[in-house]
Specification:
alpha/beta; eight-stranded mixed beta sheet; 8 helices; 36% helix
């Protein structure tokens, strides 16, 4: 396992990361909401990268995992800045971004911001604009009126918290209302039994991307996490095929 390093991005604020040297492009894993770089998909992909001599970076957003900051103080814009800081200051050369759920939103935002560096995208149940479609009207009112929404999480003991700052930031960074000027190859993986992010959003992303090299793979019995052994094998095969084609 690679050692933990830190990138200073502000006064008393450091991002924790693990950077594996190897042949490029560098894989950069972007976790989902309330997740971190030690998740099953991130570590499995890192182990594969090590076995292949591939360069890889995984990291924790501000307020997540072992990075500095308070989780409830974070915004989508702030996490986008974290991704760009990693691309600009830690990684050299081209990158391929692998984004899970909310990480899929961030990978699209990063590709738009750094088209000269981002050479490929792989989204796992990508969830752009989920601040818009992922909440009921009553939940949105709760966020706006009380500053936060707390819900039980199916993925752990910690409740799922959405703050007004995060929600408002997400609403200003929506992508699904117009064509996305992303030219690089894109691969999307989505479970059709996903209870959190409907698989039809991957079709909409595919439609809006400018790139002609876009492929979507749907797993009929796959859930949101796509973390079973068969799902991980599909992810690795997809990453490997894309890297070989670049």
């Amino acid at each position: 396992m690679t050692e933990i390093s830190h990138l200073e991005i502000g006064e008393n604020l450091r991002l924790a990361y693990r950077h594996r040297q190897g042949c490029g492009p560098t894989l950069v894993f972007l976790p989902g909401y309330m997740s971190d770089m030690e998740g099953g998909k991130a570590t499995a992909l890192d182990a594969w990268a090590e076995s292949q001599g591939r360069a890889m970076l995984r990291f924790d957003y501000s307020g997540c995992g072992i990075s500095d900051g308070e989780f409830e103080a974070q915004t989508l814009a702030g996490w986008r800045a974290d991704v760009l800081a990693m691309i600009d200051e830690v990684v050299e050369g081209p990158v391929v971004l692998v984004g899970s759920s909310m990480g899929g939103w961030l990978m699209l935002l990063a590709a738009l911001a750094r088209p000269d560096r981002v050479k490929g995208l792989i989204g796992i149940a990508p969830a752009p604009d989920f601040t818009s479609w992922g909440f009921t009207q009553d939940q949105k009112l709760q966020i706006l009126q009380h500053g936060r929404l707390e819900e039980p999480s199916p993925y752990g003991d910690r409740p799922y918290v959405t703050t007004r700052a995060f929600w408002e930031s997400g609403e200003t960074m929506r992508l699904l209302h117009t064509d996305m000027g992303i030219e690089c190859p894109v691969r999307l993986l989505h479970g059709q039994a996903d209870a959190d992010v409907p698989w039809q959003w991957s079709i909409e992303i595919m439609r809006l991307l400018r790139s002609a090299d876009v492929q979507a793979t749907f797993v009929k019995d796959g859930d949101h996490r796509l973390s079973r052994d068969s799902d991980i094998a599909l992810l690795i095969a997809t990453v490997n095929a894309l890297l070989e084609a670049l």
